[in-house]
Design brief:
The complex is a heterodimer. Chain A is α/β, with parallel strands linked by helices. Chain A has two domains: 212 residues, Rossmann fold (3-Layer(aba) Sandwich), CATH 3.40.50; 38 residues, no CATH class. In chain A, 51% of the residues lie in helices and 14% in strands. Chain A has twelve helices and eight strands. Chain A starts with a helix and ends with a helix. The two termini of chain B are 14 Å apart. The chains are: A alpha/beta, B alpha/beta. At the A-B interface, α2, β3 and β4 of A face α1, β2 and α2 of B. β3 of chain A pairs parallel with β2 of chain B, so a sheet runs across the interface.
């Protein structure tokens, strides 16, 4: 399929939304044009503030995102939304349903929503989502909001690559917080108790605060707990104000620059590692690997010794 | 390059019956496609905007209200306006025979009536998308 990249990027620069959409597809599919596109757009990034919204399924994340986006629009901010849902490891397919809860922003000129499946990418989701956020940033968005289900490690990585991470829970989360606190709660800059009109909301807010106090400040920031009822647009202004407060804190303390530095470092590392990975496992090493597996199966050597032999061979090849 | 087939499944109009749409959406997912489901009561404008933002290969429209002769042509018209008329548009639901011919002339590629096996829809979409990409 012939793609006129120059023309595509020109339309992108003029603010054409179908061009934005096509650029995202090319990058998400890791097309051969992706590196050139990302290189060309990278110099235009750095303006958008990145917010991550994560939490267990059914916490009302999409509704909350929709409400937050409306608050941002009321302040005339341009917003990009990335809604990530899991790919089935069995079929490779995905059902992306976040738009159902985002009807209110479906036709808003200043909002662009893109659904993304996690796809099988080995830890590559964070990179792919960051690429899409970069693209939206380069397009001129003031905010990029990324929504993920806070279950797997790679989803947490996505949330953590954002500047402000909002963890959403509901009164019913109760005991499951015990299970979640290891991963999910540690990355929270702000905790939202959504559906706060339900029974047990005060209780869970109290428990969460107690847990946070026990842990103490992180880099000088104590994560606040904010009650919301997203379906009734309640608490969303408070949420926006707190995000803004966290942003000011990050900027004043120099942590934002540090965060960006860490992200850049991670990106370069990931790119280098995937390239090395790709070059190492070529036909010849795969063949050699097969033979070594036979050796191990026959009980002649250990897997560890096999790995050393393979590494030695790679070093010889490199010399 | 990894290229998934992306499909928007949308329900234009006012009927509230989305079981068929959900069954088809699940079947397409199980066939390895990425399915964006938008929910009930969508206007043609919202459907087309979503299709553009999601850069889907296919738009699947489900309708049971009888308003297809008003809504489908509008969707096709908006797609043309946005330069997005390269997308495959298929439909399902209760649509009389006479209308099927008319809608196909307008640009709906295929219409699947009640009782169509989902495998037939999956095969059709795979075949058509591959042909368009080639």
């Amino acid at each position: 399929m012939g793609i006129d990249l120059k023309e595509l990027l020109e339309r992108f620069g003029r603010g054409d939304r179908s061009a934005l959409s096509r650029v995202i597809t090319l990058v998400e599919n890791r097309s051969s044009l992706a590196p050139e596109i990302l290189d060309a757009l990278y110099t235009k990034t750095g303006r958008a503030y990145r917010i991550g919204i994560t939490g267990p399924p059914g916490a009302g994340k999409s509704t909350l995102v929709s409400g937050l986006v409306q608050v941002l629009r009321s302040k005339n901010k341009l917003v990009g939304v990335i809604a990530v849902d899991p790919t089935s490891p069995f079929t490779g397919g995905a059902l992306l349903g976040d738009r159902i809860r985002m009807q209110e922003i479906g036709l808003n000129e200043g909002v662009f929503v893109r659904s993304m499946a996690t796809r099988g990418s080995l830890g590559g989701l964070a990179e792919a989502a960051t690429d899409v956020a970069d693209i939206m940033d380069a397009f001129g968005k003031d905010f990029v909001v990324t929504e993920t289900v806070g279950v797997g490690q790679c989803e947490l990585d996505v949330a953590e690559a954002c500047y402000t991470t909002v963890v959403v829970i509901v009164p019913e989360s109760g005991d499951s917080i015990q299970a979640m606190k290891a991963g999910l709660m540690e990355i929270a800059d702000i905790i939202v108790i959504n559906k706060s009109d339900r029974e047990g909301a005060d209780n869970i807010a109290r428990q969460t605060r107690a847990m946070l106090e026990l842990r103490g400040e992180r880099n000088g920031w104590m994560p606040p707990v904010i009650p919301t009822i997203a379906s009734q647009s309640k608490g969303l202004d408070d949420l926006y104000e707190m995000i803004d407060k966290h942003r000011q804190f990050l900027e004043a303390s120099g942590l934002l620059a540090k965060h960006r530095r860490t992200n850049i470092e991670r990106t370069i590392r990931a790119l280098v590692e995937s390239e090395i990975y790709r070059t190492i496992w070529n036909e010849s090493t795969m063949h050699h690997l097969e033979k070594l597996v036979d050796e191990v199966m026959a009980g002649r050597i250990s897997p560890r010794r096999a790995s050393r032999q393979l590494l030695e061979r790679l070093q010889e090849d490199g010399e | 390059m990894e290229r998934k087939i992306r499909v928007l499944v949308a329900k234009p109009g006012l009927d509230g019956h989305d079981r068929g749409a959900k069954v088809v959406a699940s079947a397409l997912r199980d066939a390895g496609m990425e399915v964006i489901y938008t929910g009930l009561h969508q206007t043609p404008e919202v459907i087309v905007e979503a299709a553009v933002q999601e850069d889907v290969d296919v738009i699947g429209l489900s309708i049971l209200s009888g308003a297809h002769m008003a809504l489908f042509p509008r969707i096709l018209e908006l797609l043309r306006e946005r330069g997005a008329d390269d997308k495959l548009v298929v439909a399902g639901g209760i649509i009389p025979k006479d209308d099927i011919e008319e809608l196909k002339r307008m640009g709906i590629s295929e219409i699947f009536g009640p009782g169509t096996p989902t495998s037939q829809i999956v095969d059709y979409i795979k075949r058509e998308v591959e042909a368009r990409r080639a």
